[in-house]
Amino acid sequence: MHRLIAALYLLCASAAYAGAQKYEPLAASAQAALHKAVSDSRPPGSSFRNPIDAADWLGEMSRRLEKRIPSREYRIDLLRSVHYEATRAGLDPQLVLGLMQVESGFRKYAVSSAGARGYMQVMPFWLKLLGRPEDSLFDLRTNLRYGCTILRHYLDIEKGDLYRALGRYNGSLGKPEYPNMVRAAWQNQWAYDKPTRPTETGR
Question: What is the pTM of this model?
């Protein structure tokens, strides 16, 4: 099993594995909640506990992303947005980075054969379903907002079962390949342990 996961990880490192969320009718309450989640236009605040945590995480993730996105300024903007939108949705930012790697290979304008768009490969039917046809899924923050909101929605449907939620996200529910690739990318490429710092004494 470990060899299979490693092989799948190597595959997804060089080629995106975009799928397509499948249209499912939503209850009015769920539709309203999702519409509210993607419509929040308040300016983003910091999703980090303090500036030191921000510097540590952004510095480490920026280093790992450098080969894929050469511009440091854009990398930092992307990573800040990922951390904010993932945290806002109650997701692990490193999981979202793993999903982005598998779905789009971090290509902003990626379009799958099924029509899924952007970093997190969001299907356009969500725009109409949530009453926001004017939104652009190629916009950085819009794409991340939708992608994180949709994954959170699937996690809630599946009562926290990440394997099944990822299958729904990719339109491959019940098949192991996609969840295994995302988990492998998450664990092998984006896992992060917060640095430990000595506490100040004598003051």
Answer: 0.83
